[in-house]
TrEMBL record:
Record-stated family: Belongs to the 4-toluene sulfonate uptake permease (TSUP) (TC 2.A.102) family.
Transmembrane segments: 6-36, 43-62, 74-93, 113-131, 151-179, 186-204, 210-233, 245-262
Organism encoding this protein: Gaetbulibacter aestuarii
Topology in membrane: Multi-pass membrane protein
Keyword Membrane: yes
Keywords: Cell membrane, Membrane, Transmembrane, Transmembrane helix
Localization (cell): Cell membrane; Membrane
Keyword Cell membrane annotated: yes
Name of the protein described by the UniProt record: Probable membrane transporter protein
Record-linked Pfam families: TauE
Highest rank taxon of the organism: Bacteria
Amino acid sequence: MDTTQILGYVGALVVGLVLGLIGGGGSILTVPLLVYLLGYNPVVATAYSLFVVGSTSVVGTFQKYKKGMVDLKTGLTFSFPSFISVYLTRRYLVSDIPHHIFNIGSFEVTKNMLIMVLFGIIMLLASFSMIRKRVNPETGSEKQAYYKTFIQGVVIGAITGIIGAGGGFLYVPALVLWAKLPMKKAVGTSLIIVAINSLIGFIGDVQNLAINWHFLLIFTAISIIGIIIGVSLSKFISSEKLKKSFGYFILLMAVYIIYKEIS
């Protein structure tokens, strides 16, 4: 095992820790790790990310549920429109995007570049969401209408499908502001949505890609160890303070990815 592989597996442990502590951000680390450190194609990396984050989130959901930190009804309501959108995006849209998209003079925009730049933009938005101070919803305020939840689920699902992210960094604020869940319960509930979205999205990829199961299962197993540790540590660490610090880190990574892809 060379140094790059060792660093990759250390990264897998960190992915699990982050998911366990803040309920999102696993894919934000997984995709750049697979692309820039381990040299995977962005399409393959986003597919692997869906499996890793989805499988890891299943374990995290079980741990959070035992502690009463998962609202199953709300989680399933959000996930239903999302997983349909994720599957259709991975199965039909991502695989059909041409390698060459267009040119601006001598500058060529490729499929891989487009995916990573879009990933960087979503990371920027996610970082702002993590950094800004949360405003707790008013006590007794009503949850939003189901059709709005459905539309939001479809949109977030499409984003999840294209960039290979579980969407936890999008769902935690949505669950707090729209579903009126307390922060810690929103973190736990987001994991069930991430798990469903990611694994169903990966099913769409299995039909289009050759999967290196040996690597993927080892990477995923290490991430699962990480989320078990992360969930255990979450009761001792303020998720809001951690989320803000992680937000600044993601902001730097987003700028780096966008610069690297277009320079």
